[in-house]
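Researcher: Quick sanity check before group meeting.
Model: Go ahead. Protein one:
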Amino acid sequence: MHKVGIYNGGIKDAHIMEAYIMEEYTINGLAKIAGVSARTLRYYEECGLLRPRRDGSNGYRIYGRPEVGRLQQILFYRELGVGLASIKQILSAPGFEPLPVLNGHLAALKARRGQIDILIRNVEKSIQEMKGEISMSDTERFEGFKQKLIDDNERQYGEELRAKHGDEIMDRSNAQLKGMTKEQYEESERLTQELGSTLKAALAQGDPAGPLAQKACGLHKEWLCFYWPDGQYSKEMHLGMAQMYVADERFKAYYDNIAPGMAEFLRDAIQEFCK
């Protein structure tokens, strides 16, 4: 008897991962085993993301094993926070191989599990401290949050940053972040907010070389130095980061989410700042 397991965002007991021998499934049958709605499957079809193998003589959508495997990949990516348009591009890429992708999913899920374990220990220690059983250091209080930031950065941008700057720099950067004191962590959060508001005001003025835009670049440099290894800042590095903010869609989306056109504006401002 063959089993087809569909991962739908949670750990399923074995009896929920149904066993079946059929080679084909109706839309309702596939929706049931996957833990999604038939409406979701219809939407995936409208997006060109998951098409049925064929339409049956009764007009029902029929899905086969290849479609089951593709749906599994879609749900893996959705769990990791990837948008549908990006998933479609990934799965439709020439030479797409599911095995390396599954290994990537496994590594990401293990990293997330490790992050959750750290947060659980952090909460348990906080409870113990409130009961007067232990005393926590400031470093321990923020361990889980800093590790989450490291893991999120590695998952989203790690490959590109390591290719550009090398493993040694990135490992030292992660170690520096992990060693932040409570005061340093809070200051970095405050600086992030100030940088965002200053960039918005500077963009509204529209002059990358203006005083407000250059103030924002100074704040951006200060923000970078919180996360970059001591003594490693350089104008070349700053300019390289600015170019990446425009060239890489993920960085661009982050800054354009502050205000449309922000990535290009910040790049131009940093180019003036580094002259």
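Researcher: Fine. The other one?
Model: Protein two, sequence then structure:
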Amino acid sequence: MARAPKTWKSVDEQIGILQDRGMTIDDEAKAAHFLRRVGYYRLSGYWFPFRQFDDDGKPSDTFIKGSTFTDVIALYLFDRRLKLLAMDALERIELSVQVDIAHLLGRRDLFAHYESKFLDKDFVKEPGNFGYEGWLEKYHSLVKRSKAVFVRHNLEKYGKLPIWVAIEVWDFGALSFFYKGMKGKDKTEISRKYGSERSITDWLRSLNYIRNVSAHHSRLWNCNIVDSASMKGFTEPLKSLKNERPFLYFCIMKQMLDVICPDSSWGQRFKELVDGFPNTGNKAISLENMGVPDDWKEWELWQ
């Protein structure tokens, strides 16, 4: 039987609920500001680790001793900056791989993305949304939705978009989907540019997941990466990381950015952000929840 929905609560009532459950709120005006601008429900994901858990691992409504609203906000702001860093990296990765695909296939046919002969046979045969037919349907919807002048110009001139124009309307999902469907030798040619002897299909799928989490303002720092990459092909120290934790994918971003823009300060900014991870008095949260090992800054990748 469905439970009755919770009733509406004013911001003052929300503050009272948190205090009754054991959270310290030193500055109620500041707390009210965040509750109004960020929202009780969204912030609840950041105070969840501060809740007490019973012996069966079930969370209670009571916060552990020493939990403060200040620490919750510090964690929220850390996660916000983490998502901004992710989006910064993913924008460059998306553009770079798009150009790789367009350059590689465009030299064979300017409309290569319309030609199934340039794609993996199994991908072409796969029915519905999981194969080339599904990709084409999504691509056509992206073209139709676009209001860009260059799209209209190329459609009027050629009737369809050359591949180096078509990539401009792809989103990250369309990119990762198309790369998945490319022939093995073509995927290998691109993946080797980024230091991988295996196809980076898994990488792109997982990075697209992180991109969606970040773009929709969801919690990233300790989220479970549902579309996790296979650990095959990784060597130490990355091989020792958990593929359901975000840190592995920031390592992948760093590896790809070292190729795309080797002089970028992105890696340094990431290290500085991690160094500023909230240090709570009750140790309710830790970088281990994000999948970060103790010795990560000693790795050559992060030098």
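Researcher: One line on it for the slide.
Model: The chain has 13 helices and two strands.
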